[in-house]
Write a structure and sequence with these properties.
Layout (H helix, E strand, L loop, with lengths): L10 E10 L2 E10 L2 E7 L9 E3 L4 E4 L1 E6 L12 H10 L2 E6 L10 H11 L6 E4 L1 E2 L18 E5 L13 H14 L2 E5 L3 H8 L11 H4 L2 H18 L3 E3 L5 H12 L4 E6 H5 L2 H7 L12 H12 L5 E3 L7 H4 L16 H11 L4 H19 L16 E11 L18 E11 L2 E5 L3 E2 L33
Parallel strand pairs: 1-4, 1-5, 6-7, 7-8, 9-10, 10-11, 11-12, 12-13, 13-14
Antiparallel strand pairs: 1-2, 2-3, 5-15, 15-16, 16-17, 17-18
Helix pairs in contact: 6-7, 12-13
Amino acid sequence: MEPLTSQHADLVVEGGRLITPTGVHDGAVVIRNGRIDALLDAGAPLPDGPRLSAHGRYVLPGLIDSHVHFRTPGMEYKETWEHGSRAALAGGVTSVIDMPNTRPPSLDARSVQDKAALITGHSRVDYRFHMGADPDHPEVLADLDPDIATSAKIFMAGHHTAPVVFREAHQLEAAFAAAAHGGIRLVLHAEDQHVFDLLDAGHDEPGSYGEYEPHRPRTGGIVAVANVVQLVRRFGTKTHVLHVSSAEETDLLVAAAAEGLPISFEVTGHHLSFTDADTAARGPRTRLSPAIRGTRDQDRLWRAVLEGEASTLGSDHAPHTVEEKNRPPSDAPPGLPGVQELATAVWTGMLARGVRPDDAAAHLARLMGEGPARLFQLPGKGRLVVGADADLALLDPARRWQFSANHVESLCGWSAYEGWTFTGRFTTVVTSGRVAWDLHEGVSGEPTGRWLPAAIPPSPVPVAPLASPGRMEVTR
C-alpha cells in the first residue's frame, strides 16, 4: 500500500496553531475532496500537494453566524447575498443562518424554497434558514421537513421589519406545543409587546437617542424571558433566546438551563462592544432592538461568554441604508451590519479583558463553531476534525489595524465599528477545500455556497487526539 505521506493532497495548510475539540495544537491540516482528511502534529511528514502557510496564525474551523438578515427577498437595496457573503468571508464566517423577516416573509416551506431559489448561485458561504413562525398557523411547526428548516423564529415584540408578532398567550402556547411535537427549535426575539404598549400609553416617542434605551427598557425582556422559561418547562420545547441584552435575562436563562430545561441563548457582538452611552452619543449607528444597555449588563454578558453560559455568538447582521438610519429617532429602524465585524470585535474584547490567545481562540470555536452546529444540526460544520467539511479561517492574532468604511463589504457601506482599532485579523478563509477569500486578493472564484442539508447529530463520541509525529488521522 502506498505510504500515506506520499498520497497527493488537494491542499495542505501547514505551520498553524490548530483549534480542535481536544485543545490547541501546532500542526497541519490535510485536505482531500473538500473535507479534512488528516490532522498532523508539527514535524510530521507532509503529503505532496499545494501548500498554504499558516505560520503565526490560528487555524479555526470556518465560523458560523447563526443570526443574519441578508434581506432577500424584497429588501435587496439594503443588502444582497453577494455582498453579505463577502462580508461573512472577511470576518472568517463560512456558514450563515438567515432570518425570515423579508418581504414576503418566510412563514412556510414554499416561501423558504422560493427564497433559496433566489439565492442559488449568489452566495459565497453555505447557508440555512430560520423559518418564521406564524401565530395564525402554528400547526406548520408540528410537521416541518428538517431539510426546509430545523428552527423557527418567533417575534414577541414588533419593530420595523417584524412580519408578525405573537402578542397573546394562547398564540405562544400553540406554537410551543407544535414545535415540541415537531422537534423544532424555537429562536426568539424575547421582548413583551404588552409591556411596551403599556409604557407607550403614557409616553411620547423618543426625541433623542439618549431616550431610546429607556423607551424600550429591560422590563420587556425580563418579562418575556420569564414567560418563555415557563413555556419551556410546560411543553419541553427546544428554545434559543436571541440577542440577550440584560443581566437579569441572562441570570434567568442560566438558572433555567441549570434546572435541565432545553433552553439556550445567544449574545451579540454589538451588546458586548457598545453600551447605552454609545447610543446616546453616536445615535442611529448603535440603535438596536433589543436596545443596547449599560456597563453592568455588558459585563454580565461577557461573563456568560467567557464562563460557557452562552451557547452562540451572533451578529444580528441587519443593514439599513444611511438614509434610513438618519431618519428622526422615532422613525429610524433598529439594526446594524455585523457579520464581518463579529469575530474580530469579540476577539479584540477578549484580549482586552486579559484572556489568553489560546483560550480566546477556543471560545470563538465553541461559540461560532461547535455551538451553532450542534443546536441547528449542521453536519460537517463547526469543528476541526477529520471528516468535517474543509472550511477554515486563518486568524493573525496580534495584528493591530483600524477599521474604516473602506473595509466594509456589506452593501450598506457603513459600520458602527468605523474608527475602532482591532487586534487580530483574518488573513485567509478556505471553503470546501479551496481558498475563497484572501486579505490581499479578496474573494476568488465563483459563488459556490450551498443550502445545507440537516442532520440530527449522533451522540457525542470522544475525538482522537492529534497523531504523533509521522502518523496521520485518516478517513477510510
